[in-house]
Specification:
7 helices; about 200 residues; single chain; mainly alpha; elongated; about 0% strand
């Protein structure tokens, strides 16, 4: 290990802090969007900064593992924790089906109720996944020294559970105006699958 590799840790910490800052901006705009009924596209776009909440802790973890084991194999990109993926994925599918339904009650009331359910479910499932991530991260660093690809990837995918902030903020906006999250809800008979989180 060279002294230069250690620089990745403070740099990754700065990256995490920057993502936390962007997340905070997203939260403020999410609240503003909810208060104004999700009618302003500028607020809705800025509210999407809450997606940065998934990358608050993982950059630091990746840097630490890379310093210990430069050859460590870790997946890139976002991947949801196993519990959240199962539960929130099911709720999201129900939400999309309600939003695209020809039934007015399902579109106007069902979607809002499902957004509320998703927010509560996210808090619980993301907490479980984050705990799994912490355990995996601890064992991947201490006994295995970053040599277990399985533990490394479990840690990475579950430490992104800090994106509970994103899910809750989007759910809040969705409860006020579902179409502010899924544009296709404005025209429920033209399916838009570009944003399923």
């Amino acid at each position: 290990i060279t002294r230069y590799e250690f620089l990745n840790i403070p740099f990754s910490f700065v990256e995490g802090v920057q993502n936390a800052g962007r997340t905070a901006v997203g939260v403020v705009n999410s609240l503003a969007s909810a208060i104004t009924g999700g009618k302003y596209s500028t607020l809705n776009e800025r509210a999407k900064l809450t997606e940065k909440s998934a990358e608050i802790i993982t950059p630091v973890y990746r840097a630490i593992v890379r310093v210990i084991n430069p050859r460590a194999n870790m997946e890139n990109g976002y991947k949801e924790g196993v519990v959240s993926e199962a539960v929130l994925g099911t709720i999201t599918e129900a939400l999309l089906n309600a939003g695209w339904s020809k039934n007015v009650v399902a579109r106007q009331i069902g979607t809002r109720l499902l957004f509320a359910v998703k927010a509560v479910a996210a808090i619980v499932t993301k907490a479980v996944d984050f705990s799994i991530g912490l355990v995996a991260a601890t064992f991947s660093i201490v006994p295995f020294l970053g040599r277990s690809d399985v533990l490394n990837n479990i840690a990475v995918s579950h430490l992104t559970s800090t994106d509970v902030i994103d899910v809750v903020c989007k759910s809040l906006r969705g409860m006020v105006n579902p179409a502010s999250i899924y544009k296709s809800f404005e025209n429920p008979f033209v399916n838009d699958t570009t944003n399923r989180r």
